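A sample copied in:

***
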Amino acid sequence: MLGMVDGNGHPYSWSAMFNGYEPEEMKDCPYAGIPAYLDKEPKETLRIEGAVVTHIWTDDPADAERVSRASLIPHIAERPEDVIGQVDAVIVATDKGHEHVERCRPFVEAGIPVFVDKPLVDNEADLGVFVEWVKQGKAILSSSCMRYSKEFAPYRLSTNNLGALRFASITTAKSWERYGIHALEGMYPILGPGFISVRNTGTPERNVVHLKHTCGADIVAVANADMYGGFGLLQLVGTAGHAFVPFQDTFYSFKAQLQAFVDYLRTGVRPFPFDETTELMKLVIAGLMSREQNGREVFLTEIAPN
């Protein structure tokens, strides 16, 4: 479990889903929501079977000490590269996309499979690096937990009861750079590939993003800095019906996401095509480009690789 940045407590919670945790130590986790949702889970269903987190490294060494105690991780690495030769795979648990190429490079080059927290990237050049690595056969997986939301699952299976989709909306707190992918990947498996363009008419604090899809639907994704009451609110409107679905079970989505990575390690079969991640990253990048260019409509065809 490698890396820890401001505003992101995944090393605590994700490690606990593999190792279990020490309740008294976890109470001191600086992210109160983590012990709250971990404590709801029965101990017999908490852990992912057959895999453990053996090593932890964080940007601030003091964080590694705390996470190690809370999430029962036996080894603290002095440098992230020190885990090479000691582990079967690594999880890069940071959500600043512009850092991920360099955080991942030592492990990709050593042939170690990598799971990268969302978003994989936030710029065109870094996307090109990851696409090339995957073409070379490197085992790299990245996703938002929202792809695995159990609340959205029925609509991933079918929206036929709604008729042809004409409009969708989804919301998140925090920034487009770091949390826009939650909104995007929450609705992406429902609509599928085929996004055309992105127009962000908002600001860095109030992103209001209009996306067009080849199915004929318009989608609005909103990422508002302090809108903590609006994480993962999905609306779907079709020619014959509508649905409103709030995201609720954080633990389930995180565990399913990590289980998908473990299954990929065991089978070599991706849980979804990497082309989907590429398209999603283009949506993130296009949203930033549009915002910086006064709300210009940015077409995905403008963003390499094509």
Q: What stands out?
A: The domain at 147-248+279-302 is CATH 3.30.360.10 (Dihydrodipicolinate Reductase; domain 2). The longest strand covers residues 165-173.
